[in-house]
């Protein structure tokens, strides 16, 4: 005699926990969100599975590069925090980054420090 619940427990397997594409590719940027935004934007009729992974990787690389250079800029100014001014200076100084962002509708607002009267 087999009890009613026993058969279910013998065939029931534990479900594997799903792993996000960002975790699988070891990226910090959300691959699923990039995929969703690409599909909602109707940039192409068809998208490869690897397209959002590649784009998330490129975005992560550019962000890391800009933040690294902005950190060096802040360090050279003896500051501990990166400010938008540091990022703007980096984008102005680096010609490749400047060309990449020159058509941006909202360019970084770089303010020159005012000399204080003491």
TrEMBL record:
The keyword Nucleus applies. GO terms for cellular component: nucleosome; nucleus. CDD domains: HFD_H2A. Its main location: nucleus. Keywords: Chromosome, DNA-binding, Nucleosome core, Nucleus. It is found in: Nucleus. Pfam families: Histone. GO terms for molecular function: DNA binding; protein heterodimerization activity; structural constituent of chromatin. SUPFAM superfamilies: Histone-fold. Coiled coil: none annotated. Belongs to the histone H2A family. PANTHER family: HISTONE H2A (PTHR23430). This is Histone H2A. The lineage of its organism: Eukaryota, Metazoa, Chordata, Craniata, Vertebrata.
